[in-house]
Amino acid sequence: MTRKQKRLTIIGTGMGFLALAAALTFYALGQRTSYFYMPADLLSQPAQAGERIRLGGLVEAGSVVRGDGTRVRFAVTDSENTVEVVYDGILPDLFREGQGVVTEGAFGPDGVFVADTVLAKHDETYMPREVADRLMEEGVWQE
Amino acid sequence: MNSMLFWTLAAILTLAAALAVMLPFLRGGERTVSEAEHDLAVYRDQLAELEREVQRGLISESDAEEARAEIGRRILRLKGANEEDRPPRVPGQGKLARVIAVVAILAVPAISWGLYGVLGSPNMPAQPLAARLTKDPSQASIEELVARAEAHLAANPGDVRGWEVLAPIYARLGRYDEAAKAYRKVIDLAGPTAEREAALGEALVGTGGGIVTEDAEAAFDRALKLDVENPRARFFIAMARAQEGNPEEARTIWQELAASMEEGSPWRVAAGQALASLAASERRASASGPSEEEKAAEDEAADDMTSEARQEMIEGMVASLDAKLQQDPDDPEGWRMLLRSFVVLGRRDEAEAALARAREALGPQSAEAGKLEEFAASLGLGTKE
Amino acid sequence: MSVELGHFALVLALALAIVQAVVPFAGARLGSQTLMRVGEPAAVTGLALVVGAFAALVAAYVQSDFSVLNVWENSHSAKPLLFKITGTWGNHEGSMLLWVMILSFFGGLAAVFGRNLPPTLKANVLAVQGLIASAFLLFILLTSNPFTRLEPAPIEGRDLNPILQDIGLAVHPPLLYLGYVGFSISFAFAIAALIDGRVDAAWARWVRPWTLAAWAFLTGGIAMGSYWAYYELGWGGFWFWDPVENASFMPWLAGTALLHSAIVMEKRSALKIWTVLLAILTFSLSLLGTFLVRSGVLTSVHAFASDPTRGVFILAILVFFIGGALTLFAFRGAALAPGGLFHPISREGALVLNNLLLTTAAATVLVGTLYPLLIEALTGDKISVGAPFFNLTFVPLFLPLLTAVPFGPMLSWKRGDLLGAAQRLQAAFLIAAAGGLAAYFITDRASAFAALGMVLGFWLILGALTDLALKSGIGKAASSVALRRLIGLPLSVFGTALAHAGLGLTVLGIVGVTALEKEQILTMRPSEVTGIGDYSLHFEAVRPVTGPNYTEEQAVFTIYAGGVARGEIISAKRLYTARGMPTTEAGIRTFGLSQLYVSIGDSTADGGLVVRIWWKPLVILIWLGALVMMTGGAVSLLDRRLRVGAPARRRSAPVPAAEKA
């Protein structure tokens, strides 16, 4: 191989990997990212049953009901609209009624949100950022 | 003297730093090695390494030959480049270099003293906690004395006397939660007495911000079981009745209390005062003018010397709470207590001022401030923004 | 007074850093040897001053001096001594001071050990180091001053965030910073080369050991952080693709690439421009990591800073250094002389492949980390990019890389023989495949994916061993000769083998825990029994315990295997009293290379306790592998060849005393 060919081989391989990486990245970004919703958003643009989203808001006071075993049922609210959530697992240490929470999962056919991940604030001053921003916009929560 | 020592040490540090910068100028010039010589040395070392690898049999002789040739080519190229060796001498560099040197050496003290002057607090001594807790008690602040007692009690949690001393101090400082805990500890360790239960109840009233809560009332009930005559418990049970909207019962208990105590005893005075304010609030509620009799009672109570003493004590407590909040303003519960106290004392202007300070301290946008505003509104404060 | 003296020392260190940034650089421009030499004492004295400042802060923490705002905010007199000390860097201000101290440490090392470097190169390197130090010292003093005082001093502090009160935190940030900041030396060398327009022969010899050291520390730091998150957060995961984790992973990927391309450059004088670019990119990613974590733009467990002025200040530093370096590269990069030629199939070619895959992988991680920020800035939509994204992009790029790793050391320089290398690796491949097959049947055909992953892990380990065997002639020469040869091999060969084998161990661990993990969530009442894997857990009781600054409810389980008690496992709900903050303490018990992991949740109304139990097979290997990689780096560093910066020994030394330093 000539010098030029060698160089072209290397550059070609490099370009090939970049193209592969770019293609993978775009595909994955299209498939594997989840949008963040607040209960009010679901009125204007409802999420499909089965579509993976993140749902955030405040845990409605008095809504937490422990079912049999490890199942928990609670409501996520932005103080006007409310969404029922069921979750099977251990709630985070700082999960409390009236506090900010972000859940990840999808709506079941019955309109109840089935969460597989529940994130609460991590310390007394931390609020999931998406929730804090939106609640502040709506004036429900102040920093 | 301490501050003298600090400035001396700072000056020594600065001098050392400036000397460090000066060092190369003091040592004078040395023979310089050109870049090419450095490169050559590296290539020679590479050749030597190649020989070692050949000896170990890590690379074949033909590969080694090729590598040798390549390093040889680099050395040749280097020799060619050697003719136009660097670095270029900039004309007049000597003078410019000297200016830079002087500026650099002056910059060290200038930057450090200038910036430290803006940022530092040179007159503030270090305050390690252990030293603060062991210094002469007469010079320590109440908080420091309390911390000292706390440290002692953390090590000897069974020291009843310690808890017994500390509990009322907590209450005086407005740290009702801790006061209640301390009284509970005393009761646990030394058994209940009427006075201890009643004092616990009073501390709980403090945590409730002046409301006789269920817990508090239970404590007073226990106290009365041990001693029906306990004046503190009787006083607060009456207050509980009054807060429940049962002024008749409250009045009866207070009147009995006042009658049973000796002239001039603090509980008699307190009961009298409570009766007077009860009467006054009823008067306000019925919106009719005060009866002569009631007015007289009120005046009498207000004139009473010990009543003033009690008022003073309340104000002292409010002032200490106020001071505590100035020191540690991030305490919404404290602000709530202060606001309520000012309103109860009828000092609305000060209450408004305190609310403004609290807003500032908690951050006007914070959730805590929001809650406090609500609470203030319930007291009728903060309406004029 | 010691506090104020520490503060003063920090300000003085800034003054020296500025001198260090300006004077040697001016000296190099003017050709003045004396000015160039100022960098050396300035760097060493600056290091002493920053260490003094840091010591003053540690002392304030140990003595609970609450007249220092930073101590009051992050400490408590009842905190155990160890956490008082580690709490010094458990907060924004203190950790930035640690960052700068490590930066000064590397600057000081470069000054002391660099006495036999070409003077212009050294002057420029120290100037760049001084510039970075000035920027960060200014940042600390103006926006994050740990020495701000409080008058009057409160009597008690607010305590440190409980999840940070852990031995993992004592070790994780210093290691991580040693890695991040260690790359600043390579960066400084790259900038110096660009300023000078030439790459000295000594350049690569110098860059490689620094990069190696930084890389080894970063490997350890990331592993430590991963282990900390694993046991402290109680979620049982070892890697979350959390932006902050990515922030440390990107420089690691780029640094690994840099490490390999520096080898090519040192041995073959090729890939000069590329190596310089990688050095810039690696440190840029370290700075980006610092920015992401410190500015609070990301929502994460780690982001304790949220002051916008800090974010803007760090962003300015970031733009200045990355932008400046890349601009310089654009203008001067082409001036660097190109190096030797090589065939695509050769050791060089293999290292280029490694570089391409590593940098592309780093790029996908970068995209995944920054994409949500970008989308939010552009459209306001909030999205999250999580593990599924990275599994889909990062893993396909990493698989071919891992497959190719054993080939690299088998190929010769310039022109290699792929077929020959494959033949030599035949045995390794067959054994790896057999191992994978065996694993498949031992696990009752649980997962074909696991079996394939195991093959890959074994392949990496055996490939590394094959390399050692071939280089020492085991199997060909008499065993005594081979043994002597093995012992005589350069340490860097062992380093390479260890690092590659360590990678294999980590792969085995990741595959084991991802594919074969067992998990159970259930409600248990005392004296109930549940089984997981080959073990059964007997829930004994819940008991209250009081610690120095917390109270906790411990749930005690006894582990039985085959009817025999194998010890206890304790998980707890802990309440830190000063902040009133609850945490979950996971209970972990190691059996061989695997672990049982128990994490308790809330109590249920009927007196039960929600319990989450994992059986994590081979999980230990993840971190053990990282430790072996680190050891590989350390062994390589001990290689005589690398310790010699430039062979000044053999000529009349210009600075005689320097060699012993």
TrEMBL record, chain A:
Keywords: Cell membrane, Cytochrome c-type biogenesis, Heme, Iron, Membrane, Metal-binding, Signal-anchor, Transmembrane, Transmembrane helix. GO terms for molecular function: heme binding; metal ion binding. The keyword Calcium does not apply. GO terms for cellular component: plasma membrane. GO terms for biological process: cytochrome complex assembly; protein-heme linkage. Its main location: membrane. Heme binds at residues 122, 126. Residues 1-7 are cytoplasmic. The keyword Transmembrane helix applies. Pfam families: CcmE. Belongs to the CcmE/CycJ family. Heme chaperone required for the biogenesis of c-type cytochromes. Transiently binds heme delivered by CcmC and transfers the heme to apo-cytochromes in a process facilitated by CcmF and CcmH. This is Cytochrome c-type biogenesis protein CcmE.
TrEMBL record, chain C:
Residues 89-295 form the Cytochrome c assembly protein domain. Residues 315-640 form the Cytochrome c-type biogenesis protein CcmF C-terminal domain. NCBIfam families: nrfE, PRK10369.1. PANTHER family: CYTOCHROME C ASSEMBLY PROTEIN-RELATED (PTHR43653), CYTOCHROME C-TYPE BIOGENESIS PROTEIN CCMF (PTHR43653:SF1). It holds the Pfam family Cytochrom_C_asm. GO terms for cellular component: plasma membrane. InterPro entries: CcmF_C, Cyt_c_assembly, Cyt_c_biogenesis, Cyt_c_biogenesis_CcmF. GO terms for biological process: cytochrome complex assembly. It is found in: Cell inner membrane. Required for the biogenesis of c-type cytochromes. Possible subunit of a heme lyase. Belongs to the CcmF/CycK/Ccl1/NrfE/CcsA family. This is Heme lyase CcmF/NrfE family subunit.
